[in-house]
Write a structure and sequence with these properties.
By secondary structure, the protein is mainly α. The chain is built from five helices and no strands.
Amino acid sequence: MTGDGWNAGTSQVSSLLLIIVCRTVEIVPGIGSMTYLIYLAAAVAEIGGCFAFWAWLRLDRSPVWLVPGVACLCIFAWLLTLVNAEHAGRAYAAYGGIYILSALGWLWIAEGVRPDRWDVIGVSICLLGASVILWGPRPA
Protein backbone atom coordinates (compact mmCIF):
# COMPACT_ATOMS: atom_id res chain seq x y z
CA MET A 1 0.00 0.00 0.00
CA THR A 2 1.37 3.39 -0.92
CA GLY A 3 1.36 6.33 1.46
CA ASP A 4 -1.65 7.98 -0.16
CA GLY A 5 -3.69 4.78 -0.14
CA TRP A 6 -3.80 4.52 -3.92
CA ASN A 7 -2.97 1.03 -5.13
CA ALA A 8 -3.90 -1.47 -7.80
CA GLY A 9 -6.97 -2.61 -5.84
CA THR A 10 -8.36 0.90 -5.69
CA SER A 11 -7.66 1.36 -9.37
CA GLN A 12 -9.62 -1.82 -10.10
CA VAL A 13 -12.56 -0.51 -8.07
CA SER A 14 -12.47 2.73 -10.09
CA SER A 15 -12.48 0.75 -13.33
CA LEU A 16 -15.37 -1.36 -12.11
CA LEU A 17 -17.40 1.75 -11.25
CA LEU A 18 -16.80 3.16 -14.72
CA ILE A 19 -17.95 -0.12 -16.29
CA ILE A 20 -21.10 -0.13 -14.13
CA VAL A 21 -21.99 3.42 -15.16
CA CYS A 22 -21.41 2.63 -18.84
CA ARG A 23 -23.44 -0.61 -18.65
CA THR A 24 -26.28 1.20 -16.90
CA VAL A 25 -26.67 3.40 -19.96
CA GLU A 26 -27.29 0.24 -22.01
CA ILE A 27 -29.53 -1.61 -19.52
CA VAL A 28 -31.91 0.86 -17.89
CA PRO A 29 -34.74 1.97 -20.16
CA GLY A 30 -35.30 5.71 -20.29
CA ILE A 31 -31.81 6.54 -18.99
CA GLY A 32 -29.84 7.22 -22.12
CA SER A 33 -26.31 8.34 -22.69
CA MET A 34 -27.60 11.89 -23.27
CA THR A 35 -28.68 12.09 -19.62
CA TYR A 36 -25.17 11.15 -18.50
CA LEU A 37 -23.66 13.68 -20.90
CA ILE A 38 -25.97 16.38 -19.55
CA TYR A 39 -25.07 15.44 -15.97
CA LEU A 40 -21.37 15.46 -16.83
CA ALA A 41 -21.61 18.85 -18.56
CA ALA A 42 -23.60 20.22 -15.61
CA ALA A 43 -20.96 18.96 -13.20
CA VAL A 44 -18.15 20.60 -15.16
CA ALA A 45 -20.11 23.88 -15.28
CA GLU A 46 -20.92 23.76 -11.56
CA ILE A 47 -17.38 22.90 -10.52
CA GLY A 48 -15.98 25.59 -12.81
CA GLY A 49 -18.37 28.18 -11.40
CA CYS A 50 -17.66 27.24 -7.81
CA PHE A 51 -13.93 27.19 -8.46
CA ALA A 52 -14.12 30.77 -9.73
CA PHE A 53 -15.41 31.82 -6.31
CA TRP A 54 -12.78 29.64 -4.61
CA ALA A 55 -10.05 31.28 -6.71
CA TRP A 56 -11.32 34.77 -5.86
CA LEU A 57 -11.84 34.21 -2.12
CA ARG A 58 -9.13 31.66 -1.29
CA LEU A 59 -6.44 32.11 -3.93
CA ASP A 60 -6.53 35.93 -4.12
CA ARG A 61 -7.49 36.00 -7.78
CA SER A 62 -9.17 39.02 -9.36
CA PRO A 63 -12.93 39.50 -8.86
CA VAL A 64 -13.11 39.33 -12.66
CA TRP A 65 -13.03 35.53 -12.15
CA LEU A 66 -16.63 35.85 -10.94
CA VAL A 67 -17.94 36.82 -14.39
CA PRO A 68 -17.26 33.45 -16.04
CA GLY A 69 -17.99 31.77 -12.70
CA VAL A 70 -21.54 33.11 -12.56
CA ALA A 71 -22.01 32.28 -16.26
CA CYS A 72 -20.92 28.70 -15.53
CA LEU A 73 -23.41 28.44 -12.66
CA CYS A 74 -26.22 29.69 -14.91
CA ILE A 75 -25.27 27.11 -17.55
CA PHE A 76 -25.23 24.43 -14.84
CA ALA A 77 -28.78 25.29 -13.75
CA TRP A 78 -30.01 25.37 -17.35
CA LEU A 79 -28.43 22.00 -18.16
CA LEU A 80 -30.24 20.28 -15.30
CA THR A 81 -33.56 21.40 -16.79
CA LEU A 82 -32.73 19.37 -19.91
CA VAL A 83 -32.80 16.05 -18.06
CA ASN A 84 -35.90 14.02 -18.85
CA ALA A 85 -37.16 13.35 -15.32
CA GLU A 86 -40.61 13.39 -13.81
CA HIS A 87 -39.52 15.10 -10.58
CA ALA A 88 -36.77 17.70 -10.18
CA GLY A 89 -35.70 16.39 -6.76
CA ARG A 90 -34.90 12.93 -8.10
CA ALA A 91 -33.04 14.37 -11.07
CA TYR A 92 -30.95 16.47 -8.67
CA ALA A 93 -30.35 13.53 -6.34
CA ALA A 94 -29.15 11.34 -9.21
CA TYR A 95 -26.97 14.20 -10.43
CA GLY A 96 -25.38 14.36 -6.98
CA GLY A 97 -23.57 11.07 -7.52
CA ILE A 98 -22.23 12.21 -10.90
CA TYR A 99 -21.20 15.54 -9.34
CA ILE A 100 -19.18 13.84 -6.62
CA LEU A 101 -17.48 11.60 -9.17
CA SER A 102 -16.72 14.68 -11.31
CA ALA A 103 -15.40 16.60 -8.30
CA LEU A 104 -12.88 13.82 -7.68
CA GLY A 105 -11.95 14.01 -11.36
CA TRP A 106 -11.36 17.76 -10.87
CA LEU A 107 -9.26 17.00 -7.80
CA TRP A 108 -7.08 14.67 -9.85
CA ILE A 109 -6.91 16.54 -13.19
CA ALA A 110 -7.04 20.22 -12.21
CA GLU A 111 -5.43 20.10 -8.78
CA GLY A 112 -3.02 17.23 -9.35
CA VAL A 113 -4.13 15.27 -6.27
CA ARG A 114 -4.89 11.63 -6.86
CA PRO A 115 -8.05 10.39 -5.13
CA ASP A 116 -7.25 7.88 -2.40
CA ARG A 117 -9.10 4.73 -1.43
CA TRP A 118 -11.42 6.68 0.89
CA ASP A 119 -12.40 8.96 -1.99
CA VAL A 120 -13.16 5.93 -4.15
CA ILE A 121 -15.13 4.20 -1.40
CA GLY A 122 -17.07 7.40 -0.70
CA VAL A 123 -17.98 8.02 -4.33
CA SER A 124 -18.98 4.36 -4.68
CA ILE A 125 -21.42 4.73 -1.81
CA CYS A 126 -22.77 7.95 -3.33
CA LEU A 127 -23.27 6.37 -6.76
CA LEU A 128 -25.02 3.41 -5.15
CA GLY A 129 -27.30 5.79 -3.24
CA ALA A 130 -28.06 7.81 -6.36
CA SER A 131 -28.90 4.58 -8.20
CA VAL A 132 -31.33 3.51 -5.47
CA ILE A 133 -33.04 6.91 -5.63
CA LEU A 134 -33.24 6.86 -9.42
CA TRP A 135 -34.23 3.26 -10.03
CA GLY A 136 -35.88 2.11 -6.80
CA PRO A 137 -39.28 0.45 -7.30
CA ARG A 138 -42.16 2.87 -6.78
CA PRO A 139 -45.91 2.41 -7.00
CA ALA A 140 -47.40 3.51 -10.30
